[in-house]
Amino acid sequence: MGISHRNRQKFVLLGLGIALTSSLYPGSVEAQNCYMITASGQRINLGSICGAKPPQANLFRIPIKRRSSKTPVIEVTFNNRYTFEMILDTGASGTVITQEMANLLKLKPTGQITAEIADGSQVKFATSVVRSISVNGAVVNNVEVAIAKGGNLGLLGHDFFGKYNVRILENAIELQPR
To answer: Which residues does the UniProt record annotate as the domain Peptidase A2 (predicted)?
Structure first.
């Protein structure tokens, strides 16, 4: 069983249209946009031909808003209500928020820790617990955070992303569950 001459022309023209569209519009090679519609209206996924990769399950892609000393700054939401810009600090074991953030979240100190900071010195921080920390769908519940008396930005630490493989790209961060 072969393709008739008339149907072969339609198929070739359709193939040429896909090739031209893919080269003119790079976004069309994404898995959800690389398809062919048959004469009967059936949609056929051509993602493997276009070279598109299917989206990964549970991959959280977080836009980088800007950088502070080359370190990514992202938006982080606390208790499903307040969103703050924070530094993603891959070297920090815990999350540190500013006093201003703690005030807005109505946090009261529940403890105290002594932590070693980047320069090697020891600093005491008050601590409290937030109900949730979320970033673009990735969520951690009941997290103890340190409260810094000074500073403009909080630090999102390993207590948030510790269960993820972290990939820092030019304009985004990817979190993939381990």
So the answer is: 84-160
